[in-house]
Write a structure and sequence with these properties.
- This protein has 729 residues and is of the alpha/beta class.
- Among the domains are: 183 residues, P-loop containing nucleotide triphosphate hydrolases (Rossmann fold, 3-Layer(aba) Sandwich); 68 residues, Orthogonal Bundle (Arc Repressor Mutant, subunit A); 189 residues, Rossmann fold, CATH 3.40.50; 64 residues, Thrombin, subunit H.
- It has 25 helices and 22 strands.
- The strands form five sheets. A seven-stranded parallel sheet has the order 11-12-10-13-14-9-17. A six-stranded parallel sheet has the order 3-2-6-7-1-8, sandwiched between helices. A five-stranded antiparallel sheet has the order 21-20-19-18-22, with no helix packed on it.
- Helix 24 links the parallel strand 13 and strand 14.
- Helix 2 crosses helix 3, helix 4 crosses helix 8 and helix 12 packs antiparallel against helix 24.
- It is globular, with a radius of gyration of 28 Å.
- The structure holds adenosine-5'-triphosphate (ATP) and magnesium ion.
- The site of magnesium ion (MG) has 4 residues, from helix 2.
């Protein structure tokens, strides 16, 4: 088998080992994903297994697509006619679970037209529930509750087994119960439910379990260290005692603890399958030795970790570049200028470069900098497209047409564009339909057909007629049914609801919004043959890692989390400041801090040839300017690998000199006289009252440190903070 020649001996051993439980443990870039792909090829070619018997789970839809095409290439199949691999289950855990629930819907609490609620749907549901329970959303944060519910579900803890020990947990349980009821009433599930329901199906029905086990004889899992309990149990239910189960992973790269991932599943696996073969891969094929040494410098600081060497035959490569920008704008510009100059010299393609950051919010400035420079970029992140208001509106229309019980979608669009329906009418609608024992969506459908006439009197004449019109429209769209193509259906919806006039006000942003709607229409069009169900499922399952809108040759902007499993010749990691990476939210939690470190490790090991680590001396947010310390991780990098100008990484005298001489292009201004004095009482529009603790003039700006009663100590730029002096003693 010729393709085995592309593998080193350990890799080949992993690929060709006889069927059974196999665990491949290895560092980044050592070919785990490659081995998994080749294993699929080998299962076909050597053992002659059928595509339908194979289930391969990867972390993102993009990875799944890539895997499919790699297997096709390996086997020399015609890639355009992917028929030979039809029937192979290749995708994310969630996609697999969604398909299974759809198929077995009559054994689940939802019917097969169920919709998947995304984060904002979930959030509005929780907020509504808190409101109904008369709980102040300011005291109990909906997000916090959502996180707890999500963690519970990932541990397969339903409301009935949720243990409470204090008042907060009692409220949470209460909300959890209501939340599940509401989901079911909406014929909806959330992401975590997908796994939960799939597990329940298999756990409670032995015959079903057996039929699935028979069907999926060979299961392969990439990024195994990031599976959570629900995912692990799902795998266990799909496998018998001695399954052909091939998992690959790297505990040092586990970065989804906050989504319930538990790298200890690696240990569980070894306990559950004592006969498992464990194969270690050693050589890294991705990065230069300098990059690997930097990565080891970072990860070796981990407590209780066995030291593992990363080595490559690629040679040392160039130095790691560190750079300290003046502020976050300058930081973004630096990355863009470097990319521009590297590509200008013809050394790299724009598409070879990636800029990574810790939080999604950091992408905005990068985007702006790219736009200003007139350079294209690819942004990986849901906000880019599927998070846009207009896109969500149109999807809500489709979801409602598909599933009239979906109240969240109904609420979103019932008065969007405005139909003159106020809050009062809408809450009456919900009450009246509840009284009639049906969902408000179905109520409107009947209304639109002239039914429920006796209930008209609950509404004002105007409201009743608006509701009637809407019901009629909804009925009309529904009756176009699956026969019509999705693009046409969207056209009807947009026309009948006058959506274009609503969203496109003639401004540039309006045109943009309309362009997004049209973009969605063209995505929908592609799904026409496959039907609305598939389309809506696709939309719901596109995780934030997956929204690459096109494959143009341009730099990629993405979070460190989204970068998992990927590789790029040139990598920039920006925001290497204390508080950003490691994130300040993690400061008090050692486990979370360990994960921050692994996240940085994942980032470094994405780089093949060159790595740039960038920070900003000062960062400004909401008028608050913070002078940050360089990230502690920078000190863990072996200094002989570095070149660049981060102050903390230089000898002291040189650093002091640089402080005084850098940013020379800033206009020279005489230092200001401070306008605040220690002890003054001030008022800030957002933080309220506080007392000045310290004031300092730096270049042309005055920075004041203020202790606020509400939020504690903040450092602000006086000229921007809108401070009001309360008294002048
Ligand atoms: P990560 O932990 O980051 O997911 P990984 O272990 O999955 O990494 P791969 O992505 O499979 O690593 O491989 C890293 C790179 O090395 C890829 O470009 C892959 O094609 C290449 N590679 C792996 N094994 C070999 C080999 N034996 N010969 C040549 N190139 C290889
Ligand atoms: Mg991989």
């Amino acid at each position: 088998m010729k393709f085995l020649e592309d593998l080193n001996p350990q890799q080949r051993q992993a690929v060709t080992t006889s069927p059974g439980p196999v665990l491949v443990l290895a560092g980044p870039g050592s070919g785990k994903t490659r081995v998994l792909t080749y294993r699929i090829g080998y299962l076909f070619n050597h053992f002659g297994f059928q595509p339908g018997e194979i289930m391969a789970v990867t972390f993102t839809n993009k990875a799944a697509r890539e895997m499919r095409s790699r297997v096709e290439l390996l086997l020399d199949l015609d890639v355009t006619a992917s028929a030979p691999l039809r029937g192979m289950s290749l995708g994310t855990f969630h996609a697999f679970a969604a398909r299974m629930i759809r198929r077995e819907a009559d054994r689940t609490p939802v019917n097969r037209d169920f919709v998947i609620f995304d984060e904002s749907d979930q959030f509005s549901l929780i907020k509504q529930i808190l409101k109904d329970l008369n709980v102040d959303a300011k005291q109990i944060s909906p997000n916090k509750i959502l996180n707890i519910i999500s963690s519970a579900k990932n541990e397969l803890i339903g409301p009935e087994s949720f243990v409470v020990g204090n008042y907060f947990e009692e409220v949470t349980l209460w909300v959890y119960q209501q939340y599940q009821q509401e989901l079911r009433r909406n014929n909806a599930v959330d992401f975590d439910d997908l796994l939960f329901l799939a597990v329940q199906l298999l756990r409670d029905d032995e015959a079903l379990r057996r039929s699935y086990r028979d069907r999926y004889q060979h299961i392969l899992v990439d990024e195994f260290q990031d599976t959570n309990t629900a995912q692990y149990i799902l795998i266990r239910l799909l496998t018998g005692e001695d399954p052909d189960l091939f998992v690959v992973g790297d505990p040092d790269q586990s970065i989804y603890r906050w989504r319930g991932a538990d790298y200890r599943n690696v240990l569980r696996f070894q306990e559950d399958f004592p006969q498992a073969k464990t194969i270690l891969l050693e050589q890294n094929y991705r990065s230069t030795q300098n990059i690997l040494d930097a990565a080891m410098g970072v990860i070796d600081k981990h407590q209780n970790r066995q030291r593992k060497e990363l080595f490559t035959q690629r040679g040392a490569g160039s130095q790691i570049v560190t750079h300290e920008a003046y502020d976050e704008v300058d930081e973004a510009n630096y990355a863009i200028e470097m990319i521009a100059s590297l590509t200008f010299r013809g050394e790299v393609e724009p598409g070879d470069c990636a800029v990574m950051y810790r939080t999604n919010a950091q992408s905005r400035l990068l985007e702006e900098a790219f736009l200003k420079a007139g350079l294209p970029y690819r942004l990986v992140g849901a906000q880019h497209f599927y998070g846009r208001r207009e896109v969500k509106d149109v999807i809500a229309y489709l979801r409602l047409i598909h599933n009239p019980d979906d109240q969240v979608s109904l609420l979103r669009i019932l008065n969007t564009p405005s139909r003159g329906l106020g809050d009062k009418t809408i809450s009456t609608l919900f009450k009246v339909s509840e009284g009639a024992g049906i969902s408000p969506g179905r109520f409107l459908l009947e209304f639109g057909k002239g039914g429920n006439a006796e209930l008209h009197s609950n509404f004002s004449r105007r409201a009743a007629s608006a509701l009637f019109d809407f019901g009629k429209l909804l009925d009309g769209w529904r009756s176009m049914g699956s026969a019509v193509d999705l693009g046409l259906l969207i056209d009807h919806v947009l026309r009948d609801s006058s959506y274009e006039a609503y969203i496109d006000d003639g401004t540039e942003e309006g045109d943009d919004r309309w362009a997004n709607v049209m973009e969605l229409r063209s995505v929908a069009q592609e799904f026409s043959g496959l039907g609305m169900t598939t389309f809506l499922e696709h939309v719901a399952l596109i995780s934030d890692q997956d929204t690459l809108t096109d494959e143009q040759n341009a730099p990629t902007l993405l979070t460190l989390h989204a970068a998992k499993g990927l590789e790029f010749p040139i990598v920039f990691i920006i925001g290497l400041d204390e508080g950003i990476i490691p994130h300040q939210r993690s400061f008090d939690d050692p486990e979370a801090m360990a994960e921050e470190r692994r996240l940085f490790y994942v980032g470094i090991t994405r780089a093949m040839d060159q790595l740039f680590l960038v920070r900003a001396f000062r960062r400004r947010m909401f008028g608050t300017s913070n002078v940050n310390e360089p990230s502690r991780y920078l000190n863990d990098l072996p200094s002989d690998l570095l070149e660049g100008d981060v102050v903390g990484l230089m000898p002291k005298e040189q650093a002091a000199f640089r402080r005084e001489t850098s940013w020379a292009w800033q206009p020279e201004v005489d230092d200001l006289e401070p306008s605040f004095r220690v002890g003054m009482r001030v008022h800030h529009p957002k933080f309220g009252e506080g007392i000045v603790m310290e004031t300092r003039v730096d270049h042309d700006e005055e920075e004041v440190t203020i202790a606020f009663e509400s939020v504690g100590i903040k450092r602000l730029v006086a000229s921007m903070a809108n401070l009001e002096l309360l008294d002048d003693e």
